[in-house]
Amino acid sequence: MSVPFSEEQQRRFDEELARVLARYPADRKSAALLPALRLAQQILGWLPPAALEHVAGRLGVSACRAREVATFYVMMRPEPLGRHLVEVCTNVSCSLRGAESLLEHLEQRLGIRSGQTTSDKRVTLREAECLASCGTAPCLQVDEEHLENVTPETIDQLLAQLD
Prior knowledge:
This protein is an alpha+beta fold. The chain is 46% helix and 11% strand. It is elongated.
């Protein structure tokens, strides 16, 4: 199994994983799979197969189980994304307040469809099932920043600020 981390990344992963595992009984370290995958993703930016295997090996679970978890949860990134992830909530409240037109606006401005990444790898755009902001819909999330009451003008300002 190849190690997906540089030496410095491996040191960071080991230190932070030790803190995570301290919260679990020694015979239940497999229960830390989700936070361990999140940690690997924070370090690498996504979860390549080598990272899934590495985390699985450290926790005593199969690589298949790690892959199942990584592909089940939307916040996990089993494929590389752009430098920025823009997610538009298209659930009921946001849809009623114009989320589809905001998504179309983003698609036009970025020149991609939902689920795609710009050719310069700057932005990945995708729909989100719910971002828990029904009272301030429509909303979207850029990387991990939550934006509410979004308008086409808000989107234009946001895109101008992304590197």
